[in-house]
Amino acid sequence: MTIERFHLARFIKPPEECGCGFKHEYSLKAALFGRIEECLELLDEYGIRPPYGVFYDPITYEIAGMDVLKILGAKGFVVSSPTYDDAQSKLKKVKELKLGTVIAVGGGSVIDVTRYVAYEGNLNFVAIPTAPSNDGIASPRAALYHVSQTGELVYTGTAPAKPPDLVIFDMSIIASAPKKLISSGYGDILSKLVSIKDWQLARDDLGERYCKNAEELALAALNTIIETAKDRKEFDSLNSVKALCKALILSGAAMGIVGSTRPAGGSEHMVARHLEIGFKRKIPHGVAVAIGTLAMGTFHELKNPNWWKEDDYSVESMKKYLEKWKIPGKLEQLNIPVDLMVEAITESWKSRPERYTILHKFKPCSE
Ligand SMILES: [Zn+2]
Ligand SMILES: [Zn+2]
User: CA-to-CA distance for 167 and 33, rounded, in angstroms?
Assistant: First the structure.
């Protein structure tokens, strides 16, 4: 089996050329497509050194965590929840063991906890996703929750974290992920249509710093999956899922070069988070994001003269893509109460007052 190397260097411009004022620093060197055991042989070539710690949850342990542990003779860590408490306790152990590299085997929560530990412990970080479910894989921020005294999860925005140095996609694992997690990945990328326009709104109304190269990366991600929606291949075919993986990396790089989720998370993610918390995280992230994207895209089309003019980027086109990607676009299909959706639109932006979006501009109220 050969390993395909997807290098990011050709997509990222020197900061002088962009002129945005961001540093365009990004640690991810490559995404490798190949069998895990063969890809792990390349760790040394990418400067990734032992001793290794491997993070997983009980499910991803069975899928690949156990194999990675054995191959590397590493120390194992079970991630129980995407919370600061869990991440801090892991960080303490990692420091005691003086590890050089942490490796995440899993989906969003495992990767978020691991990348936070990598950042706080100043360690190398390798991500081995088990599903193409969100663009957090390669992002520089971690979505972690605080736990309130009553045990509720409280979200106050992402924490600083380290993007991976290397991502390994084993397509035999990724392509057999549950279909709703594959759908979720497409939904998370679709959101760039709204997040970019929210960012432009902040640029135009408030003079917020804006990076054209990050926009190009986000649109490259988006166009990659729109291609798959237009051709005749199924959304979960090997080629489509591989394209989705590349899109997730490109979107991560958009965030990476500006060191913030700004290019990839606007009002649609605020609405989505509200729904996710309302549903105790039982809706896949990207599916909640797709619902947020449709709602906020519609709001932009109505209110924002700077909304996309391209047919491919219209709300009508979005609805067609969602059908192709098997993402339910209607509230009733997901049993989302109308009240919860109204609350998400009228309240969610208040938790992120500093991240200006179309919701901050027009402050919709429930009447
Ligand atoms: Zn997302
Ligand atoms: Zn730039």
Answer: 9
